Amino acid sequence: MPPAIRITDVTLRDGLQNEPRLVSTTDKADLARTLLAVGFDEIELTSFVSARWIPQLGDATDLCAMIAPDVAALGTPPLLSALVPNEKGMQALLATNETARREHNLTNLLSKASVFTAASETFAQKNTNASIAQTLERFVPVIALAREAGLQVRAYVSCVIACPFEGPIAPAQVADVCKRLADLGVDEIDLGDTIGAGTPETVTAAVRAAQGVTDLPITLHLHDTFGRAVECIFAALDLAIASFDASAAGLGGCPYASTPDKRAPGNVATSLLAGALEARGCTLSIDRAALDAAESHARRTVTRARAAQEPAP
Fold first, then answer.
1. What average pLDDT is seen over the chain?
2. CB burial class (10 A; 0-12, 13-18, 19+) of residue 236?
């Protein structure tokens, strides 16, 4: 059993990026405050991505400015992170940190930058408009800027089990990408079962492939599309995986994982993850009552947004 379990909440980024209606920045900030009360180890707050590509996350700077006073008021806030697609996104993250430092005396509002690639060439092209090799090239200046600012870097690897366009992904492909990421100098690798195709056997194979090429901490990002997430969590625990992503009420999914006849599935629900971990005797730092409140708040937030008249552009 891993000595400690780490949960990263991805509701505000991965949970909302696939919503058909825009969630207002004010509503996001209110949801963020409920998540801050849960006691997560990390909260992924947003993504500094172009609003043209992901309009649901086009308010990253405004959201950070809105939530900064609440973070400053906490004695020991969770680590906050944000996704960055390239050097321009990283510069926006650093500017946000500088504003929070100047206005709220926060050393770093965002202490971690996340970059993203895939184990599938087709998915990399759909999701980033670049090949896997080109995405890795983009990470070089991002990692350098993060090092200069004293920030951590997480690297997401999408489609480690299967791709909506290519089908099953060989563990050797996962190992190759993870090795190249480790060589670039990232601090953590996050393995994503982007379409929820995982089984205990395929998750075991993907995790072992990553563990075979790097000693970096590995996080598992599961979707519960076919109701197998709990079995996959148990398989990961047997491999000493001690870090998991989850989203309140199971919201979210990658917009570029959708196919013409099926919308992308959501993330594993935090309550489901917590229950599975506790069933295996893991001790969690989260407040379950606060989690229940946050998941209810998340459902109300998206229900209200989905009732809007106009879809997201």
1. 93
2. buried
Our answer to whether residue 254 is catalytic in this structure is yes
Q: Is 74 helix (H, G, I), strand (E, B) or coil?
A: coil
Please give the Cα distance from 123 to 195 (Å, whole number): 11
Q: Say if residue 310 is exposed, middle or buried (CB neighbours under 10 Å; 0-12, 13-18, 19+).
A: exposed
Record: fold of 6-306 = TIM Barrel (3.20.20)
pLDDT of residue 53: 87
| Placement of tokens 């089908």 in the chain | 167
Which of 163, 232, 254, 282 is catalytic? The answer is 254
Region of poorest pLDDT, from 46-55, 61-70, 205-214: 46-55
Q: For residue 242, give Cα distances in angstroms to 2, 5, 217, 266, 304.
A: 6, 5, 9, 22, 35
Domain range annotation of the chain:
6-306
Give 214-236 pLDDT, tens digit per residue: 999 999 999 998 889 999 999 99
- How far apart are the C-alpha atoms of 249 and 215, rounded to whole Å? 32
Angle at 304 between CA 78 and CA 17, to 5 degrees: 50
Give CA–CA dist 239/204, Å, rounded. Answer: 8
Q: What is the pTM of this model?
A: 0.94
Secondary structure letter of residue 23 according to DSSP? P
Give 46's DSSP letter. E
